[in-house]
Amino acid sequence: MDIDICFGDPKNRGVIHLRTVTKRELQNDKNLEFGPSVLASIKRRLAGRGFFVSDGAGGWRRSTLAETNGEIEKIFHMEKGKEKVQRKSTGNR
Prior knowledge:
Elements: E1 5-6, H1 13-28, H2 36-45, E2 51-54, E3 60-62, H3 65-90
Helix pairs in contact: 1-2, 1-3
């Protein structure tokens, strides 16, 4: 599960990579809005990785498509919020 993405574990290497991929998407277009094409682009860069969520008993289970897409969207919006804060604090808009 080293390259897999375990949503809910911010120290998971897969989650860290997902955040990096998302940041790169946002660097390319500061006004980017989340949608099907953005989701597809992010998922293309994550090819070969499995997506997992907590099973509630201390383990992991494969996430459903809806869970995966929802978690990717959540991370996208979190990273987009960080971009806005960083641009305001440095004076870059």
